[in-house]
Amino acid sequence: DTMIEIKNLNYQYEDGTVALQNVNLTINKGEKIAIMGPNGSGKSTLFLCLNGVYKPTNGSIQVNGEPVTYNRNGLKKLRQIIGIVFQNPDNQLFSADVFQEISFGPMNLGLEKEVVRERVESVLESLHIQHLKKRPTHFLSGGQKKQVAIADILAMKPEVILFDEPTAALDSYHSQLVNDLVDELCEAGITVIQATHDSDYAMAWADRIIVIQDGKVLVKDTPQKVFENV
Ligand code: ADP
Ligand code: ADP
């Protein structure tokens, strides 16, 4: 089943920088996709297009067979389906404490207070961070902030999660925790797309590897095929 269909996607920033050119990609439900490419190749721009932060300059994005609509309701719906974990959790965390932080998304969906509380508790439990519940977000360590940023997204129960270099700033212990968590999400049927610079990891983890360079898709293939061609 097709989860996301990107057709002839182009994105140009206001200053004229062309960040994506004629990107065509079909991503299936439950697929594990690694996106690779040098800095500045367009990975983050692609994620922000997928999440509706940027509207394509040209081309289209379909999610669950429906074109994304760029109005309030359309974007709200899109962000319930596709969540993004930013590279730097400081850009994502803005509530006073962890409980409020994780509650924010589900509250915004208009869920009952008790339902929100249950969701937050269950996400804290699945990430093994119940003890952080009452902590001020400001005083968390880098690894803990990352875990809370992931918890934020999980509380929305998305079908797709985009991870922008999720382990980039983490020590090996927290990197392993995040990698294990990603595996659990995949096992639960969530479609995961991660930007990574780690080719060994991508080869071992991904169903397909997509290589982007200068805003264009150079390669989209299974790790085996990608490996044969290097
Ligand atoms: P990556 O995530 O692969 O490092 P980006 O998507 O951040 O790549 O960047 C793609 C291109 O778009 C680069 O040339 C970058 O300099 C440019 N770019 C990124 N953000 C902006 C912006 N806000 N305004 C103008 N150009 C940008
Ligand atoms: P830091 O202070 O650098 O974040 P700690 O080692 O003090 O590092 O905390 C590690 C984090 O990882 C804590 O939030 C803890 O709850 C969490 N953690 C510990 N064990 C597990 C585990 N088995 N699975 C998931 N998370 C864990």
Structural commentary:
By secondary structure, the protein is α/β, with parallel strands linked by helices. The chain contains 8 helices and 10 strands. A 6-stranded mixed sheet has the order 6-7-8-3-9-10, with helices on both faces. It has a 4-stranded antiparallel sheet with strand order 2-1-4-5, covered by helices on one side. The longest helix is centred in the last third of the chain and has 16 residues, at 172-187. The structure holds adenosine-5'-diphosphate (ADP) (2 copies). One adenosine-5'-diphosphate (ADP) binds next to helix 1.
What pattern of helices and strands is seen along the backbone? EEEHEEHEHHHEHEHEEH
* Main beta sheet strand tally, sense and closure: 6 strands, mixed
Distance between the termini: 30 Å
Quick check: average pLDDT? 94
Overall spatial form: globular
Radius of gyration: 17 Å
Structural class, by secondary structure, is alpha/beta
Q: Proportion of β residues? A: 25-35%
Number of strands: 10
Total helical elements: 8
Low-confidence stretches: none
Function: Part of an ABC transporter complex. Responsible for energy coupling to the transport system. Probably part of an ABC transporter complex. Responsible for energy coupling to the transport system.
Protein name: ABC transporter ATP-binding protein
GO molecular function: ATP binding; ATP hydrolysis activity; ATPase-coupled transmembrane transporter activity
Domain ABC transporter: 4-230
